[in-house]
Amino acid sequence: MSGSDQARVVAAQFGPRAEAYLQSAVHAQGADLAAFAGLLAGSEDARLLDLGCGGGHMAFTAAPHVREVVAYDLSRDMLAVVARAATERGLGNVRTEQGGAESLPFADASFDWVASRFSAHHWSDWTAGLREARRVLKPGGRGVFIDVVSPGVPVLDTYIQSVEVLRDTSHVRDYARAEWEAALAAAGFITQATRMHRLRMEFASWIARMQTPAPLATAIRALQTAMAEPVQRHFAIEADGSFMIDVATFEVTRPL
Amino acid sequence: MSDTKGEDADEVPASDAAPPQQAVDPRLLEILVCPLTKQPLVYDRTRNELISRAAGLAYPIRGGIPIMLPDEARPLDA
């Protein structure tokens, strides 16, 4: 079992960087968060799980619209930041709990909503995490999964996974849209809509947020300039290393 | 270096038998199960732990946050 080893790597990577993820504009803002808030209309009585909450941005977005939010993450330091920020923002209905996505400590059908943003690419067993998300969701319940996705084309896929793991050694995999839709179906979800958008990663802050060691950051820059034109074009790599990534939002339901 | 524990110093003395000031939220307790067995948990108010008899583990609660990681749980036989 490498699951707990991966858990340690993730906790070690994100613990000291919790505050950076709370403050990060890339994470705290976005049309995907606004769209998520819109989906929550009429969910005043709902209990929502933010699975792999990180800096808590889905939890904070949801809290004004639902009865209760459980912010769940592997990193205790991240949860401490989320709990403090929730208090500062007057969001009294956000609870925090620590654990892994692959083995959720919630009874079957506990939640009306499951939300997860920029987390699944860290899970050591992605399909187990999706099955667990479905298990804790009520029949008829709704889910939103948002994550960086691979373009799917092999050369682009190899490049993005390489860059991701150089930057963050707790990276597991950015899955392609088609892989996501197949895995969601296999886990027992129905995908109601998939939305794609592009997000610009400003190189300096992207590296600083994760405190990527200098030799690895240098390797990313070398890789960026050495790659062939299709890679340069797809990721719109700029002179300073800033680039665009593909992000997908999957809106799902658990069938009745 | 960042000091992520700067405001998190509300340790409860081990000798204090009263429930700690940051106990687990009762509404959270309703839906909590053991992550290994998916069986219900019993809240031990004195030790501020969540007991899974089926798994033989006691999950700690630190700063009001249940730590639902088997690796960090206390074996009940110990």
Question: What would you note in describing this structure?
Answer:
The complex is a heterodimer of chains A (256) and B (78). With 256 residues, chain A is of the alpha/beta class. Chain A has a single domain, classed as Vaccinia Virus protein VP39 (Rossmann fold). Chain A is 44% helix and 23% strand. A seven-stranded mixed sheet of chain A has the order 3-2-1-4-5-7-6. In chain A, α6 links the parallel β2 (68-73) and β3 (94-98). The model of chain A has no long low-confidence stretch (mean pLDDT 93). With 78 residues, chain B is mostly beta strands. Chain B contains one helix and five strands, in the order αβββββ. Chain B is globular, with a radius of gyration of 13 Å. The N and C termini of chain B lie far apart (38 Å). Mean pLDDT of chain B is 77; it is low at 1-21. Chains A and B meet through α6 and β3 of A and β4 of B.
Task: Describe the secondary-structure layout.
The complex is a heterodimer of chains A (256) and B (78).
Chain A: H1 3-14, H2 18-23, H3 25-28, H4 31-39, E1 47-51, H5 57-62, E2 68-73, H6 76-88, E3 94-98, E4 111-117, H7 126-136, E5 137-149, H8 154-167, H9 177-186, E6 190-201, H10 203-210, H11 214-226, H12 229-234, E7 243-253
Parallel strand pairs in A: 1-2, 1-4, 2-3, 4-5
Antiparallel strand pairs in A: 5-7, 6-7
Helix pairs in contact in A: 8-11
Chain B: H1 26-29, E1 42-44, E2 49-52, E3 57-62, E4 65-66, E5 74-75
Antiparallel strand pairs in B: 1-2, 2-3, 3-4, 3-5
